[in-house]
Amino acid sequence: MAVDGGVLSASSEGSGDPVIVVQTALSVDELVPAIRLLRDRYRVITFDRRGYGGSAATPGPASIGSDASDCLAVMTKMDAVPAHVIGVSYSAAVALAVASAAPGAVRTLTVVEPPPRHVPDAAAFVDASRHLLLTYERAGGAAALEEVMTMLSGSDWRSRQEALMPGSVARIERDADAFFLRDIPALLRWEYGADDAARVSAPVLYVGGIDSGPWFRQTRAWVAALFPGMRCVMVDGAGHDLALTHPTHLATAISDFIATHSTP
Fold first, then answer.
1. Is residue 14 in a domain?
2. What is the reported pTM?
3. DSSP label at 10?
4. Is the pLDDT of residue 57 over 90?
5. How would DSSP label each residue in 67-117?
6. Taking a C-beta distance cutoff of 8 angstroms, is the pair 100, 92 a contact?
7. Residue 211 belongs to domain spanning
C-alpha cells in the first residue's frame, strides 16, 4: 500500500465493524493472539510500521506523529473510517496521536500501557532509553537487544518468547534496527498533554497488568487524569507483555468495550 513517502504492508481479516490494531515496537507478534480472537467478531486491520516486516523504511527522523499519519492513511485506503483503534505500549502512543489528530476517524480508543514518557518518573525512563541508544551505538544491535529484552522479560527472554509465540525471536532480531533507530528516538521526542487529550472525542479504554511495575502504575494514573471518564481493566498476574501472555483477557476486555459503541 503506497502512502506519503513510503510503502506499507497492510491486511484485513474478519467482518463487522473495522478495528485497527497499531503494531507495537520490536515484538511485532505481541498482538497476534488477541487479533485471532477479535477477528471472529470484527474486521481487524493491521499494518507493518515503517522498517518492520513488509513495510519499507524511509530516511529522515521518525515520530509518533508520522506513525499516526500512516495509520490514518491505512484506515482511509482500507475504507475503515471510523474505526475502533487499539494500541499497545509504543503503539498506544500512536493510537493517542491518531485520536487527537482525527477525532472523527476514531469510534473507540483502547490503550494498553502507553510508554511512561510523561509520568513523574519519566526522567528514569528517558535515561534508560538513552542508555539503550548508547549501547546500540557502541556495542551494536545484538548487545542492545539483549539489554532491552532482559530488562523487559528477564534473562530467559528467548525461551519464554518462543514458548509464547514460536518464531518470534527471529522476527525481533530482524526488526531490532527499526526499534533502535526509529522508535526510541520517536519516543524521546513524544509530547502529549491535556490540550491533545481535549481533542479526543472517542470513549477510552485503558488495559494494564497488575504486575507491570511502578512506571506503568504511573502511566495508568496519567491516562486517567487526561481522560477522567475512561474505562479501566486491570489483568491479574499480567505484566507489560499482557497482550502476549493474557490474550483472552485482553480480547474480552476490548470486545466488551467496543460492543457498546458498535454499529447496531
1. yes
2. 0.94
3. E
4. no
5. HHHHHHHHHHHTT--SEEEEEETHHHHHHHHHHHH-GGGEEEEEEES--SS
6. no
7. 2-119+192-259
